[in-house]
Amino acid sequence: MRSFLKIMTVVAITTAGLSVPAAAADPNADVLSVDFAQSTGSFRGGATGTLYGFGDEGAPTSALINGAAITNTSQKAPYGTQHPSGDALKVEDGFFAKHGKDMYIYVQDFYPDWPYNGGVRPSNYLEIVETVAEAVATKSARPKDYVFIPFNEPDGGNWYANWATMKNTFLADWKATYSKIQEVYARHGLGHARIGGPGDTGWQPARSADFLNYAKANAVLPDIFIWHELGIDNLRTFRSHFADYRRLETSVGVGPIPINITEYRMLRDMGTPGQLIQWLSIMEDLKVDGQTAYWNYAGNFNDNSARTNSANAGWWLYKWYGDLAGSRTVKVTPPALNAVDTLQAIGAVDTANKRATVLYGGGSKTVSLKLAGLDAATFGSKVDVEVRENTLSGAEGVAGTPPVIKVLDGVALVNGTVSFDVPTYDRYAAYQVVITPEQERTPVAGSVWTAQTEAENTALTAATVYTQDPQAGGGWKFLASGGRDVGSFNQPTSKADWTVTVPRSGKYRFQVIGATPGKPGRHALFVDGTRSTIVQYAADLALTDYQKWQYRGSSEVTIPLTAGQHTLSLRASEDGVAVLPNSDITLDKFLLTDVTDGEPTVYPASTLRYAGGAQVTYGTTGARGYGSVRGAGQRAEVYANAWETGYYDVTLDYRTSAAATADLRVNGRSVTKLTAARDGSWRSTARVRLAQGINELELSSAAGILLKQVTTTRAAAADTAAVTIEAENAVRHGTTAVNTYPTASGSNASGLKALGYIGNGAANTFEIPRGPGFDKPGAYDIAVSYANAELGGPHAYNPQVVDRRLDVTETGGAASAGHAYFRYTYAWDSFLERTIGVELKTASGSLVFGNAGAYAPDVDKITIAPIVLGTPITQKRSGC
């Protein structure tokens, strides 16, 4: 293994003022060729669909949904009992709010068991089909955007497995269900209802031929043709299945019918960008939609988001993929096609925004990028290139905004070409390459110092390195960064020592990626032999052998370090005699980041999303690469990461041609306005409360601005404006009671106490009297530390999670100040954080928390804070 893989520090690798292409230097590199002049069609963007990826309202949050740009999902049918959450009618508002196009529903989810109805075909299924179709037709705001799936995996254990004996029954049932759904829609004047099928567990050529011939003859052809692609080898065979199907259509004389692969990928692929890109590249190349399989639980995009509102590495790849909307995809030539676990890519060009993009990953070697076809009419004679790296963080581990690791500044195009190498840190990582015309802004790599190391490459004592073969067990596993991790970390002497040199004295965030199996746990962190702090972990999923020790989350602590070399020692014991509670935790990777200056994170205008006609412009001298946002409906969107809930300075650098105001919305709420008094170059800063995880920032301007960039910087000192109340100190009503957790539990509850038995009746609440810090009407955020481990019935392999709702009312105010659903936390003594936005109408009305209709989550503490502090500051600048 090359030395840079042992401790990898993200360093600024810049190449400024080049007049010739940056030629490849590594003769052993994998060559990836992209020809932007050879279009392969309009970007479809349907490969990141989900199966039960939505739980209840707000789980996932709107920021996660919109940022991931999910266009299609399959959800539980109305009145369905297959899962406790995810009813299509209950999640449609959040799904359709921005990017959602097609809401699929599994009609058979009316049944609670798997296989459906015990695997036996019922006699009254048409009644259920009618009930479900009637609910969508009469209760959905978007019934024409639904797709009904009458049968899911009929070739499996669901009613029609034996084709020799059940073929005619299935075909007749298909016709009957198809006709019944159309009858319901016609009754309500809705026109044609879209129906998808047959829905087989895999590509079934004989069954598909029988089905298509019958469907054509009986005028019941599906609107979407559906099958599943599951298994490791499907990366090799998928394209051949697609080709077989299209040939079948031709032979039957139908089509082409749109395709949705409503289940694809194995467990090992989820949350792993270097795996995900291999699937996305196939599906985008074929222009088919697809939905990730449901292997664990509902409401987290099938393990492609983290915690309640955070990104893992899989989410960032989804976001990058969604950023390609409006582009045309182009020809990509990887080292090999139709192969398992190899370098693959998507290339696209957005001529409106003058932006070319390559997303790639899956290879283990340095990648030599050979980019061609960069039209001078779009890109000019020189280009800027930025490369961002997105490394594996675990299914529940938080991944921050992917850093820029390499830039080419003003490199000259030679006949529309440019070439350069990018070293690969880990084959499970993915990379984003963005090429634009030369901008006024100077691209910078490594602006915030960070370093990372694989746990197996540290100095280990009383611990074992395990190899995690990505193809073992048929793909029923979660992958470890670098292909190995550290376990058996269960002795008083167990420790992992990382010697690292930091560039300056200051504050550093230390992050551990690891798996805490089913219960919260603790480690001690020593710096140069002296105890520094406790690393507290929340629980991770551990219901099965393929989840336990592998479903990796993360924990973060901030520590002071002086400039120079230090040894960071993560230990299972504080005293070398007794192990800390639940300290037997799998260790995958450590990261260290300089947060002394608030970790300023820049989101350049050339990389943002735009809507309503806003776009990047290169036509204004001094503002090349700026975002033009002007007039009603136009907006720029930023999906900004916050490592912790608190106040951040949100800074806009921009230009105006006259007096102008920019409106800032945060997570769907209008929070403040940033004003420039006249024409010129400006920097405006607002101090805004951001929630832990992904925050959706939307910028609009009636008069118009030219936006250079948005920067978020942590302003931790301002957190004194927030008020934290331990829930056990609140006024309790009804059955609400204090839970106390023993030290041995390893619980991360503050003070080892929390409130339980909240809700399930209007009287069972807790109350917070108004006090300083939240004693005025206005917009506030309430961060709730909570636990919820409720399950709603048995399932063969999925935890049937229940999203619990917490309502906030204000005495003397409106009927509801706010509410949110709170997702699964794996254990009742393991706490996560979820933020509720509230609008308070009075200065003195108490805040009451409860849920009249069902149990609310257990609550550890709440933090109440105004969403904005002070008045935004605008400064004139000599240039942006």
Automatic annotation (TrEMBL):
PROSITE patterns given in the database record: CBM6
Signal peptide per UniProt: 1-24
Acyltransferase keyword on record: no
Keyword vocabulary terms for this entry: Signal
Coiled-coil segments: none
GO MF annotation list: carbohydrate binding
Domain CBM6, chain residue ranges per copy: 451-593, 723-865
InterPro entries: CBM6, Galactose-bd-like_sf, GH
Protein name as annotated: CBM6 domain-containing protein
Organism: Kribbella antibiotica
